[in-house]
Amino acid sequence: MEDKKTVMRTLSSNIRNKTFEEVELGYNDLEAKKEASRCLNCKNPRCVKGCPVGIMIPKFIEAIRNNNLKKAYEIISESSNLPAICGRVCPQEKQCEKMCIKGLKGDAIAIGSLERYVADYANEHELGLKSKIKENGKKIAIIGSGPSGLSCAYTLRKEGFSVTIYEVLHKLGGVLTYGIPEFRLPKKIVQHEVEKLSKMGVNIVTDTLVGNTISIKELEKDYDYIFIGTGAGLPKFMGIEGEDANEVFSANEILTRVNLMESYKNDSTTPIKKGKICYVIGGGNVAMDAVRTVKRLGMEAHLMYRRDEKSLPARKMEITHAKEEGVIFHFLENPTKIIKDNDNHVIGMETVDMKVLDEGEDGKKKIVPIDNSKNIVKCDMIIMALGTNPNKSVLNNSNIKVDDKGLIMTEDSVTNRKKVYAGGDAVTGAATVILAMEAGKKAAFKIIDSEKCKNK
Amino acid sequence: MKKVVINEKISENSYLIGIEDKEIIKNFIPGQFCVIMAKESSERIPLTIYDYDDKGIVYLIYQVIGASTKELSMIKDSIYSLSGPMGRPSEICMNYKEYLDKKIIYVAGGVGIAPVYPQVKYLKSKGVSCDIIYGARNKDLLLIRDKIEELANVTYATDDGSFGIKGNVCDALKKNIKKYDYCVAIGPVIMMKFVCELTKKYHLKTIVSMNPIMVDGSGMCGACRCMVDGKMKFACIEGPEFDGHLVDFDSALKRLNIYKEEEKEKMILMDKKMEANNGR
Questions:
Q1: Closest residue to B24, CB basis, from A213, A257, A262
Q2: Predicted TM-score of the model (pTM)
Q3: What are the C-alpha distances in Å from A392 to residues A246, A385, A395, A425, B137?
């Protein structure tokens, strides 16, 4: 057997850095089978332990080998509600693929690529639509339609709950829609998941800011259960001088304007700023999404990260793709001041060099600015991708307890109000799609259990 | 899609739109705003709620200033999206009991009368009476005069003197400023700035309603950040109303120009498109 994985074909970097079309093209049948045949089908599969939702990975890969994609999809669906999405956005190299025994001597099995292959096949062939749902007469309101909300909705609807999703924006999907760009996660994939839900009979209410339009207290009167999956949406800024300059944006704003409002298209009336030289500050997936978006809008795209290259928290594939597309990386450098002209326009920034100290007691390396190091960087646009805080608006008039960071406090997915459950970034702080999805599912199972207990 | 019952011009460049939406009104307290989208491809525009009726119609007043508002002005039957109420209710409306014996002055400029009207109406229904100073460039730009006159003593100010006193709202306010305990100023940023400079001298507490650029209106984009007392505030969830004596108006004014060039381009594009459609 070969030690190299079957590399997924991509659009060539010089073409794709000018369009928003999906970068990765997916496996064809031959490629998928070739990759599937590399799997050793271990007796004690380590990959399963690496998967946050515990997909029976060797089993679905075996089904691919046996040309039974329907079965492969069923196996994945037992554990994951959104495989077409997770296959694309999970940091597999830190999860399942990290654990793969093949990775010790060569390439790990490309599990994410295979998951995507199966899920895309299933979507194309409309697999997985459960025909009959036995109604159980219980009502649940799900607040937020991001990964945790969608996952919770699926799980409960399948069990016969009457599910209503409340979303503040005009479109569903949360971060999958406004945050992750088209070139990484085509919106038609998210749309497909949403349509699947409405075909299953899930009620969808958009344009509703729970906490303002309707309070959780009011929802408690109408529903047997409530799930809060509102994520962590408030963008952080650095708090440095000049941050109110006109061309300083949060990554959320740029991504929302481009992804949700489609401002890169001519018929959209939402404007988007296009500078000449743009710096994105940060090193996570959101920073990568923002800098690659900026590149596609025709700017000279730079990414500045205060730590070193190997500390970049972003998904490996996104870093590789960003480099191929011509993004310029700057490590161990951090802005200290935004320089602006009299009309509030960005004309540059002051930065300092950083150095890595030895590991602290928490195992995380400390970084400090190097004394007397000061650089002047010329640029006309800056995007802050520094992470997000939870948005407490949803909790207006609700008496739901939060900790000092504003995160909702839960015990086994339940908040201090016994009908109200919560999960995802609103509870944990900003994390990944797969973890939010798992949290939504976990809360759903808690709700199912609580129903069963009542009926006993 | 939400049904539009009225969308008509009420002055040179202001429009009144009425939209069927019972949900938005249920928990609305004056001071809050909503976000409207004309079509699926439209920009999200934040607008303050001006009025509503018992049939579940929400009324908004807007000014046509760019491609998005122009597009909205051409809508006849239905709009794609309306969400809200967003933001925090006005402090004086929330705690009206503390203002029962206070002398309150509302200062409005131009379409700023739209957010002022529901506040004064709400307060009157709770037994709090207010005076209003309302200014515009000329008589034709003064909106809903009969409606506000039903609620309060109104002093008008026009730049050209075509109605009320000749001068701006500050000139009108100066005359009686000492008699008031509390001021709310809503209108163009530059007007709010001047009102605050004046009231600061007289130690007259002044609340302003900021109208920065927004995308979602729910705290997600950070476009609406304002500097208040040296701290960054998101107008959409921490405002839109702030203590006017602490707001950095110069920063707010400049930030309104962020998309000025892009707006111009969109407008040209839109005019071209309309020409092409007319030619067909």
A1: A213
A2: 0.93
A3: 27, 20, 6, 12, 41
